[in-house]
Amino acid sequence: MASLSSQDSDPPPVYTATDLVATSILVVDDAFILRDRLAMAFQQRGFRVETAEGYDQAIAVFSARPTDLAVLDLRMPGRSGLDLLQKLKQLRPEIRVLILSGFGSIATGIDAVRLGATNFISKPADADDILAKFLQGDQPGPLPRPDAEFPAPSLARSEWEHIHRVLADCGNNISEAARRLGIHRRSLQRKLRKRAPEDPGQPT
């Protein structure tokens, strides 16, 4: 029993920039709390860290200060992480990219790898989880069964994301977004004042 307890209490491995043979990483996520937390953790592990909240900002940042690695949220207002993945690979083919998804979509993860991602991982994931996936490289291990259950986004979360994608497509024009969504402008404004709902199974 003593030996088992000792094993259980061992801290998880901590990977560094040296382990990854990389010096820099780009973190792209519209959730600023997660983005900043990961950025701080990667800095502590020896990386130069660049951050962005979406596609356009990420391209601007990466064009000015390219990185060896990138961690991209799958779903963001506006263009998706898969779109960004393809663009980053065009700009720098050797970049290693990991797709971070809160939706447990195995099909989308496979698509990401086919489009050039090194790997993919479901949220919640910390810096060491992410770096471990990079180290696995093109060998992500056995995929879960096709019939495996994953927490689906709540209806509230899906609605929130859809509204913000439409708004981004309209150049943040609330009147046009309300027209496309088929709701009153004031109703849309009320929805926009709300914070993003949490996904099922996500920490509060």
TrEMBL record:
UniProt cross-references to InterPro entries, sorted A to Z: Bact_response_regulator (IPR050595), CheY-like_superfamily (IPR011006), Homeodomain-like_sf (IPR009057), HTH_Fis (IPR002197), Sig_transdc_resp-reg_receiver (IPR001789)
One annotated GO biological process: phosphorelay signal transduction system
Keyword field: Phosphoprotein, Two-component regulatory system
Domain Response regulatory: 24-138
Leader peptide range in chain numbering: none
Top-level division of the source organism's lineage: Bacteria
Name recorded for this polypeptide: Photosynthetic apparatus regulatory protein RegA
Modified residues (4-aspartylphosphate): D73
Transmembrane segments: none
GO MF annotations, alphabetized: sequence-specific DNA binding
Matches recorded under PANTHER family: PROTEIN PILG, STRESS RESPONSE REGULATOR PROTEIN 1
Keyword Phosphoprotein: yes
Organism, as annotated: Roseimaritima multifibrata
Pfam families xrefs: HTH_8 (PF02954), Response_reg (PF00072)
Coiled coil: none
